[in-house]
Design goal:
By secondary structure, the protein is mainly alpha-helical. The protein folds into 2 domains: 1-139 and 175-213, Arp2/3 complex 21 kDa subunit ARPC3 (Orthogonal Bundle); 216-331, no CATH class. It has helices spanning 2-8, 11-33, 38-42, 46-56, 58-75, 78-87, 89-105, 110-136, 145-155, 161-172, 178-204, 225-241, 248-279, 284-295, 300-313, 315-330. The chain is globular and about 60 Å long. The chain starts with a helix and ends with a helix.
Length: 331
C-alpha cells in the first residue's frame, strides 16, 4: 500500500496538491467574502487545478478535485460545491485535456485551444445557471436587494442621484442582456485561465507547455469580416426601427447581438493598437502608458470604433504596404 501511495505522491507533488487545492478553494470562496472584487478572483479558479494536472498528472488532479468538493460541501454548502463542480472543474479538465493532446501529437493550435476553453466555459456556466435557478428559484447573476445596496455603496458611494440612477438602470437591463453577458463573461474566463495557465507553465516547467497563442498584435478577425460586418450593419440599422416598445423580443435580441459584436471589435481595436506600437517601435514606457490609457473604461468605445475601422480598411496591411514602398523609394 505504501509503495502504491509513493508512486502517486512525492514531497513536491504533495506540497503542490495541498497548496493549489487550497488556492482554488480560496478563489472560489472569495466571491462569498468579497462579493464585488471576489467575482474577479473566482474567474481564475480553474487555473490552479489545471496547473496541477499538467505538472503532476491525472491522479493528483483527481485527488485534488475530490478534496476540493468534500471541503466545500462539508465546510460551507452543497451549492458552493456545485459551483466548483460545474463552474471551475470542467474548464480545468479542458485545459488539462488540451495539454495532453498537444503533448502527444502536437496537432492543436492555440486558436483551437482557446475556442475549446471558451466553449466549455460557456456550456458549464449555462448548465450551472439552470441548476441554480431550479434549486434556489433565482438567477444568481442578478443582484438581490442586499447585493444591490452593496454595489451602489461600492461604486456610487456619496455620488449624485444621477450616478446612482444610471447604475440602477444598468442593473435593471441585466436580465435582458443575460445571454450576451453569459457568453462574454464565460468566454473571457476560458481565455483568461488558458493564457494564465500557459504563462505560468512556461515559467515554472520547461518540459510542460500548452499550444502557443500569437502575440496580441497579430490577433485579428479580418478573415471573418464578410460574416461579421453584415451582422454589425444589420444591428446598426435595425436599432433605428426596433425598440422595446415596438418589438420587445427583437430589441432584446439586437441588444445581445450588439454586445457580443462590440467585444469582438474591442479586441480587434486593442490588437491593432498593439500592432501600431510595435510598428512605430515605441519604447516600453510609452507602450505601458498607452495601454493603461486605452484600457481606461472611457476609451473602450474608441477601441470598438478602431476595431470596426481596422476590419473595414485593414490598416495593418495598408500601413505595412506604404512603409515598404517608402523603403523601396529610399533604396
Amino acid at each position: 500500500m505504501l509503495s502504491s501511495v509513493s508512486m502517486i505522491f512525492n514531497a513536491k507533488s504533495f506540497v503542490r496538491l495541498i497548496s493549489l487545492t487550497s488556492l482554488t478553494a480560496l478563489l472560489i470562496l472569495s466571491g462569498t467574502f468579497f462579493p464585488v472584487l471576489g467575482f474577479a478572483f473566482m474567474a481564475a479558479a480553474a487555473t490552479p487545478l489545471a496547473l496541477l494536472g499538467c505538472i503532476d498528472g491525472a491522479n493528483i488532479l483527481s485527488i485534488s478535485i475530490v478534496l476540493l468538493e468534500l471541503f466545500l460541501f462539508l465546510a460551507f454548502s452543497p451549492l458552493m460545491a456545485l459551483y466548483a463542480a460545474l463552474g471551475c472543474v470542467p474548464l480545468a479538465l479542458a485545459i488539462y485535456t488540451i495539454f495532453l493532446k498537444y503533448k502527444f501529437n502536437n496537432k492543436i493550435s492555440g486558436y483551437a485551444a482557446l475556442l475549446i476553453c471558451a466553449s466549455v466555459s460557456i456550456i458549464s456556466k449555462l448548465l450551472l445557471l439552470v441548476i441554480f435557478k431550479f434549486l434556489t428559484g433565482r438567477n444568481v447573476l442578478i443582484p438581490d436587494a442586499a447585493q444591490l445596496e452593496l454595489i451602489l455603496n461600492t461604486f456610487a458611494g456619496e455620488s449624485s442621484a444621477q450616478v446612482k440612477a444610471a447604475l440602477l438602470q444598468a442593473i435593471a437591463i441585466m436580465p435582458y442582456i443575460l445571454p450576451s453577458l453569459l457568453i462574454i463573461y464565460s468566454s473571457s474566463e476560458g481565455a483568461f485561465n488558458y493564457i494564465l495557465c500557459s504563462k505560468i507553465l512556461n515559467k515554472v516547467n520547461a518540459n510542460t507547455s500548452l499550444p502557443a497563442l500569437p502575440e496580441v498584435r497579430e490577433w485579428t478577425f479580418i478573415s471573418q469580416a464578410k460574416s461579421i460586418l453584415p451582422v454589425f450593419i444589420f444591428t446598426f440599422i435595425a436599432g433605428f426601427f426596433i425598440d422595446i416598445d415596438s418589438w420587445f423580443e427583437g430589441a432584446v435580441f439586437i441588444m445581445n447581438l450588439r454586445g457580443i459584436l462590440n467585444v469582438l471589435f474591442w479586441v480587434q481595436g486593442l490588437a491593432f493598437a498593439f500592432w501600431w506600437m510595435n510598428f512605430k517601435n515605441l519604447g516600453r514606457g510609452a507602450r505601458f502608458a498607452l495601454i493603461i490609457f486605452l484600457l481606461f473604461p472611457l476609451m473602450w468605445m474608441g477601441l470598438v470604433l478602431l476595431g470596426v475601422s481596422d476590419m473595414v480598411f485593414n490598416f495593418r496591411l495598408r500601413l505595412s504596404g506604404a512603409d515598404n514602398k517608402d523603403k523601396d523609394n529610399l533604396n
